[in-house]
């Protein structure tokens, strides 16, 4: 499963966008993960200051 963003916790800070090694995340009102690009590496989960991203 690709990374999932909880929109209630995401503040659109952009940290995950900056740190994603494959460029799978973009910002709209919240972070949005492109499941076709996401490699489930977990970098976004590790760097999110609000614990808004999970990988199941």
List the helices and strands and how they pair.
Layout: E1 4-5, H1 15-19, E2 25-27, E3 31-33, H2 43-47, E4 53-54
- Estimate the mean pLDDT confidence: 97
Portion of residues in beta strands equals: 15-25%
* Major sheet description: 2 strands, antiparallel
| Count of DSSP strands | 4
Pick out the low-confidence regions: none
Reading the helices and strands in chain order gives EHEEHE
What does this protein structure show overall?
- With 56 residues, the chain is α+β, with helices and mostly antiparallel strands.
- It contains 2 helices and 4 strands, in the order βαββαβ.
- It has a two-stranded antiparallel sheet with strand order 1-4.
- A hairpin with a 3-residue loop joins strand 2 and strand 3.
- The longest helix has 5 residues.
- The protein is globular, with a radius of gyration of 9 Å.
Describe the structure concisely for a colleague:
The chain is an alpha+beta fold. It has helices at 15-19, 43-47, and strands at residues 4-5, 25-27, 31-33, 53-54.
Provide key terms for this protein.
56 residues; alpha+beta; two-stranded antiparallel sheet; 4 strands
């Amino acid at each position: 499963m690709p990374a999932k963003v909880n929109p209630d916790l995401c503040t659109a800070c952009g940290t995950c966008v900056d740190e994603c090694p494959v460029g799978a995340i973009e910002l709209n009102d919240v972070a949005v993960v492109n499941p076709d690009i996401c490699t489930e590496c977990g970098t976004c989960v590790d760097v999110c200051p609000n614990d808004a991203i999970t990988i199941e």
